[in-house]
Amino acid sequence: MELLHIILGVMLAALVAYAAYRAHTLNRSGALAAFILGAVVFGLGGLAWAVVLLTFFITSSGLSRFFKRRKEKVEDRFAKGGRRDAWQVAANGGVAGLAVLLHLVYPQSVIPWVMFASSFAAANADTWATELGVLNKTWPRKMTTWVPVPPGTSGGISLAGTLAAAGGSLLIALAAVMLWPDAGTGTGDRLIFGMIILAAGVGGNLVDSLLGATVQAIYWCPTCRKETEKSPMHSCGSQTKRIRGWKWMNNDAVNLACTLSAALLALLLSIVVV
Ligand SMILES: [Zn+2]
């Protein structure tokens, strides 16, 4: 029975990774990484774990697709285009994969499940804020200085983006509460854990914005005369020059910090509150 479950999980992961590759959501390396992550989550976790991963993957890539035309203007501010590569998959889903392995070590604890859902709540909050934040009527403000910055600037926050982040986190928290894999957890405890997941997701997104406003590597294109996350070359073909931030703190490192901080915050809150 266990072996059948693993085989079905691996097959489902292959199917989803292939579909995402064909839909141009993932490139070749991204599809391979998504297959490995999916095999771990579907095969070693189970149905509830799979649905939470798919809720993140489908809503975030659906939003990206839906808003593609709208955000073409801000597209080149992001380091990469719409297709996710292996580093992006690892940055968004690596912590969740580790949480599944933690669940294998501590099968009687619900905390790995809460950490798993929290990392996806943060990744979802981040994606929703990025995609829906452009709907804000005014320019976002830099989180540290509160100075208005152009849409798409790292570390900029807005009302629409913050509401979108909360919505993205809430969706994952609701899915986690409804799909709860451990029958031994009562409704009251599930709701408390759901609030922890919601808070951890929003917290991770705040870490993301804070890093974007402070230490994330930001480059300057002398031809277009604007800031970009792209390196070593801008979309126009010009060489970009780092103007602030740590060189290694690229988009993927920021996303990893976002998901990891959410999982650790969830661990801390679970220990303190429950
Ligand atoms: Zn340029």
The amount of helix comes to 55-70%
Helix-strand topology string: HHHHHHEEHHEEEH
What is the spatial order of strands in the main beta sheet? 4-3-5
User: Main sheet, how many strands, which sense, barrel?
Assistant: 3 strands, antiparallel
Using DSSP, what is the number of strands? 5
Bound molecules: zinc ion
The gross shape turns out to be globular
Residue runs with pLDDT of under 50 for 5 or more positions: none
Query: What's the N-to-C terminus distance?
Result: 33 Å
Rounded Rg: 19 Å
Average pLDDT confidence is 91
Judged by helices, strands and strand pairing, the structural class is mainly alpha
- By DSSP (H or I, 4+ residues per run), the number of helices equals 9
Structural description of this entry:
This protein is 64% helix and 5% strand. A hairpin with a 4-residue loop joins strand 3 (218-221) and strand 4 (226-228). It has nine helices and five strands. 44% of the residues are buried. The two termini are 33 Å apart. The structure holds zinc ion (ZN). Zinc ion is lined by residues 221, 223-224, 234, 236, 238.
What's a quick, concise take on this entry?
By secondary structure, this protein is mainly alpha-helical. It has helices spanning 2-22, 28-45, 47-66, 72-75, 86-105, 111-132, 159-178, 187-213, 251-273, and strands at 141-142, 156-157, 218-221, 226-228, 241-244.
